[in-house]
Records
---
Amino acid sequence: MSSTPPTVEASPQGRKPVISRDDIIAAALKLLGPNRGISTLSLREVAREAGIAPNSIYRHFRDLDELAVALIDLAGDSLRQIIVEARQRATAEHGVVQGCADAFMERLRADDRLLNILLREGKVGSTAFKDAVERQLNFFEEELKLDLMYLATVKNTGLYDPGLTAKAITRLVFTMGGTALDIPKDKHDELSKQIVQMVRMIIAGTQALAAFKTKSGL
Amino acid sequence: MSSTPPTVEASPQGRKPVISRDDIIAAALKLLGPNRGISTLSLREVAREAGIAPNSIYRHFRDLDELAVALIDLAGDSLRQIIVEARQRATAEHGVVQGCADAFMERLRADDRLLNILLREGKVGSTAFKDAVERQLNFFEEELKLDLMYLATVKNTGLYDPGLTAKAITRLVFTMGGTALDIPKDKHDELSKQIVQMVRMIIAGTQALAAFKTKSGL
């Protein structure tokens, strides 16, 4: 990986003269999949897939790391869309869990490659890359925390450590969702039900612990 | 990656004449780390690290995939050791959670590379590799399920879907544990506390859902 962008671009025949950042991202997404992670890509290979000269790619991305971080940020935006949809679908606590799970599984079924990247990657890679994944997870945890606090107030239920509850739900849903691509599509309904039940379990748990804390005066 | 093992081995000077399977695994472990996953290794590179001719490695591993599966299986054995320790440390439900978390974090702190592999890898790679990870996770879920059922009987508490409860705990602990190498060591106690609280939340949740199920006659 070179960090020095070249100043002169070769334009051999058969290669597109102009290529956008989106084209490069689309090419990277084509190469990625359940058996292929970002850390195994090379910018050279992405350039080949995009049909451009290897050097042209440096105009948009300094190195593979910068491309990887861009993919994670895009994936986060994509998932936030899902959350917006889920919020629109439901307002009650029960409905929010089911609504989120439905929207989430729908996207997974649609083979949303960006979403898959966010769900699968993140434990291995450069520090910048892992920081980007962690940042996205923290966004979701913060939003979910606010939702949980709002719902606990509206429904007058307890909530034991809202931040930790949001973190437990987010991390569990992400790790369970990450297995979706590895199972046959006819098992997706079962996975969706498992995820919903797990989230309900955590919500019931945070309410029970909060009630216990109140009763015992802790 | 070649799947055809060579029949004649070169023995250049300075290379070890005899190398064991364990030596190769040790070499692979040296190369792996928080910024380097199994899927980015090559057998050639592992051979170089082990100080043997690239072709010699095929006597032990047909391809990178076979080496990766061997690493996962070893990592599973290593983690089962932790569970045995944790069981010895505690017998009551409260104690088991804390005991498991203590043993787990102790191993993480000791920079147990095998354990780290199991916690970090698994969402990307060949089908054989992901199956190996899934198999190990299922072992833990089965053992934990039996523990949970035993404790629920002894303590006369409810348990809503023991298999799902065990799965939620296992997946959450694995994903949280996988972040341990990325945070400074002085934050490990905090992470350990978070993991314990999350597991307690799930246990309180499964008991609450079971009580609800009994009350509502479902």
---
Amino acid sequence: MPIITLTTDFGLEDEYVGVMKGIILGRAPAAEVIDLTHLIPPQDIKRAAILIQSAWKYFPARTIHIIVVDPGVGTRRQVILVKKQERLFLAPDNGILSLLGNDNSQAYAVTNKNLFLEKISNTFHGRDIFAPVAAALANGLSPAEVGPEIAFKHLIKLAWPEIVVNKREIRGEVVYVDHFGNLITNIHYKLLPPVFQQNLPEFNLRIKGHLIKKINICYKDGKEAKPMALFNSNNYLEISLKNGSAAQLLAGKCGDNVKICPTK
Amino acid sequence: MPIITLTTDFGLEDEYVGVMKGIILGRAPAAEVIDLTHLIPPQDIKRAAILIQSAWKYFPARTIHIIVVDPGVGTRRQVILVKKQERLFLAPDNGILSLLGNDNSQAYAVTNKNLFLEKISNTFHGRDIFAPVAAALANGLSPAEVGPEIAFKHLIKLAWPEIVVNKREIRGEVVYVDHFGNLITNIHYKLLPPVFQQNLPEFNLRIKGHLIKKINICYKDGKEAKPMALFNSNNYLEISLKNGSAAQLLAGKCGDNVKICPTK
Amino acid sequence: MPIITLTTDFGLEDEYVGVMKGIILGRAPAAEVIDLTHLIPPQDIKRAAILIQSAWKYFPARTIHIIVVDPGVGTRRQVILVKKQERLFLAPDNGILSLLGNDNSQAYAVTNKNLFLEKISNTFHGRDIFAPVAAALANGLSPAEVGPEIAFKHLIKLAWPEIVVNKREIRGEVVYVDHFGNLITNIHYKLLPPVFQQNLPEFNLRIKGHLIKKINICYKDGKEAKPMALFNSNNYLEISLKNGSAAQLLAGKCGDNVKICPTK
């Protein structure tokens, strides 16, 4: 039986998540339902896109990932199923899957109403569409049976914050703040030009008026009350604080600029 | 193996929920334990009553629902087991099940101490009574073995906020605020008198000084920064805000009045 | 298949916990993964130590407890496996297991890199080491195969707040605040000297300027807006408030002193 993961902005105080699980397990009793998170900030499609891209590859083949951050619920926006490297992704077509990459992915419009609950509300497709369709897929339904195949390239894509990389500077921004108050940027290790990669030459990293001159290896290397930079476990540059929250110290948030320049 | 759901006010930072699961799974290893929520506001029996009433019907027959919001723990309040439409509900007798309806329900006082942990504390019956009794039921114990049958009508009932419905007005109130800041009222679609149902005639809906003149179909139909009304996925009237929190905009909370009047 | 429990400070908004579950279930599909909590305050080793000590005994034999509160991740701190009464505990060697007691426990340094993910980050050993090692243990790996046995007594121990117990006074402190705002102290029932145990003679309990003269049996016995004392479900003295938060009323927090003196 495949794993079904859930990523939503539903929060944990209401019955919304539990109801989805009730429907899934009523129809696919042997499925294993795993919460990725239900604390995506309400309507924050970009945060959900980053999270699923960081998480999916750690789940085994045949996993079904449901992602429901869906401000357009009840409108004519499509529900889509994407198949990529033996995993399935079920989501509204609002850009939430736009970081998955398009290598050999197949996409389908989820239109087969026989799979849905009998009455479809205009506010809770997690319950009425996503849960029962995922259960059917867990039970062995072939992706093509959810509806017509569509071109992956026609799916809605998020505008993504630009990264400037040249010999004089790297410019990116904070794309999310994690639970620890780490400021995670969109600067991936691979983006560093050779001048930065060779033994990490001297540089000035500036964020919100703070100057950082070193990439640390681990959190404990930092100094108390001084922000540090390191590459996180997904190889993105993050600004952190030893035993504290960089977000709090710097009043840092999504969209803050980060700039790295070699010192000569 | 049946599903066991948990609804509590225990929060997520302590070991309380995990300990209940340890006891359940130690005794009924094949049970599937599903969290509905552990974020019922402390001691808020009314919120728990609404939540379980919204959720139970989406779980399959044989599900065992444990609901522990229990300010009377350690006193002589009863623990009860209710059987309704092939589902079981295990809860303190404090009104928490009073929205389930009483059609053909059977009720039992949970008194069979052989089912409990050996030592019963006065502060944590979730661990000492609810978890082991649910495990025994999951293992096939018949409801009658938990203790004597009692009359459903003698169970404690919550006082419920009054709804006024007549040709000139519908008056209800906000009964809870969800994670998105939606203000959920006790006005069910079915309560609308014919004058309101026929093609939704013109009306004035007033809440906290705001005037709303339309029922929207979905969230996206709203206008930014203007509260809207719609019927939610359980068919109750809610006041919402497109891409925001109506609770925040209106400083809305439980108990706020909502009044709908036809314009002529 | 054994149960695997997770106790971390990772929070619930990011993919960190889900990724650990993906790795565990990809390698040990029949394992049951149970969250104890992910809301240990960041880097709070002491809170995690108390929580796991309160929780582990309610889980069946063969359970594997993973505890990751790990400010030293990426340094040379050891990862350890402890076997105690047929349960396994997998944690960084930073004092987090120091309340388990050392009766007949065996300890191992987790050094067998064949069990880890191929690339080990310096910031997320929950994913790279703890999850795959736990999966291997769930699949039947013997503890001795994780690495060399080490002396339990050489593991790092937390300094623990002192308790003064004599005929004239008992002095302890608040060691954590739970979800309800209960102030849990390190004063165990067993520590009470005979003068206190015999029918609970008159005493003065003082905390933050408040005087309490009675041990209550259950929460409902309290008076509104007056702090009360009782022994909680783990037999530790706690300061509570009927239908409210003692922490809020008293501005109580970790480290606050509690003193009990007989009145004569």
